[in-house]
Amino acid sequence: MNSPSSTPHSASLDAIVKAYDVRGIVGEGLTESVVEALGAGFVDEVGAAGGRVVVGHDMRDSSPGFAAAFARGATARGADVVAIGLCSTDESYFASGSLDAPAAMFTASHNPAAYNGIKFSRAGAQGISLDTGLASIRDRAAAFLEHGIETVAEPGTVTNADVLADYAAYLRSLVDLAGIRPLKVVVDAGNGMGGLTVPAVLGEAAGLPALPLEIVPLYFELDGTFPNHEANPLEPANLVDLQRAVVEHGADLGLAFDGDADRCFVVDERGGAVNPSAVAAIVALREIARVHAAGETDVDVIHNLITSWVVPETIAGAGATPVRTRVGHSLIKDRMAETGAVFGGEHSAHYYFRDFWGADNGMLAAMHVLAEFGSQEAPLSELAARFTPYAMSGEINSTVDDVPSAYTRIVEAFTGRADFDEFDGLTVTGVTAENEPFWWFNVRPSNTEPLLRLNVEGADAPTMERIRDEVLALIRG
């Protein structure tokens, strides 16, 4: 195929095809004709002609139309579309894994209502990034937009399928919640897809037996305009309603899902946010213990480089090998496949499971937390504190026009006091005397904006705050 890199279509696609997915404003870069071309390009890239392609979508107003347009492009190039309708992103991964078919999920995750996008998977829920096929899908789509989509001699068909009950039953088979103590759980679905999946997995909506859980629903109505708050629990302002409700209802804990329900955040009985690194450590311990009990001895667990140090310490302390990775959804899915790791955790509340085809699943992480917490009597704040021994800054973004100069200022200021590595951005680890508190920080440039992202961790809050303030002054010049 001739490269369409110089065409207007290619330029418009460059604006919406990101490192790991497609994301754009509806009606501007992202239209049904663009989506139809992407469907055709996807089928050609993954070799799906004569086979099946799963297509699912979230609750955004534009999602059903986009899913139908994608199906037109996919069937024109010979793929049989299995349309699973409304679903969470991890439900689409379940369909891709259980059917061993490539998949496209229409969602813009936590982005505001004006956005939509596509998350692609190869068969078996394997990730696709710019480096592993997404760039080729983009280029094929640009050519189809320029020259038209040629329908093959045997176009495909569209079949509707509902996989929610099978998805819920599969997750129940992985984590047994039947024997935990009774728990009251407030769940904030943020008007996103958790409003569909939580009643099916944790309740009886999919025909499964009742669990010892009293679910207090918050914003379960599917509404892609997000009338209550943005479905992005990573932003503290979007957790306020959940935190208040947990305290008002005297609940044992709270769960918050993002728009496509593939990430889950946890709140303790006091309304305090549980650090995603603590969740990663708790789940890692459970998964390591499970496979050790089954006879595995050489066990890998993945964590990205800006999770708390407690995560690799917990993994190593449990007799497994911590594998440090760069930040990035598809990168971690690739490393899960390469290493056979039983589990992977990110600072951003993405949690990956070998028993879920190496894909991320916020619901499954939540179930592990419920199982661990529900098997003992201590409050969640006490359990979480055991896995939050250090002080973290959280991610702090600064607008920086000249990133190399900022790096130079940091290196000059910390030379002789720290070790440096450039595995992903710049990680600076303090060289401290035996009795001094440890610290480290990472700065990474954004892929899409003139931002530097800073994460700092220290042995205690004063140490973290001292390093944080020094580095911010250097970054901001």
Automatic annotation (TrEMBL):
Keywords: Isomerase, Magnesium, Metal-binding, Phosphoprotein. One of its GO terms (molecular function) is intramolecular phosphotransferase activity. Residues 395-473 form the Alpha-D-phosphohexomutase C-terminal domain. It comes from the Bacteria. The keyword Protein transport does not apply. Gene3D superfamilies: Alpha-D-Glucose-1,6-Bisphosphate, subunit A, domain 3 (3.40.120.10), Alpha-D-phosphohexomutase, C-terminal domain (3.30.310.50). This is Phosphomannomutase/phosphoglucomutase. The lineage of its organism: Bacteria, Bacillati, Actinomycetota, Actinomycetes, Micrococcales.
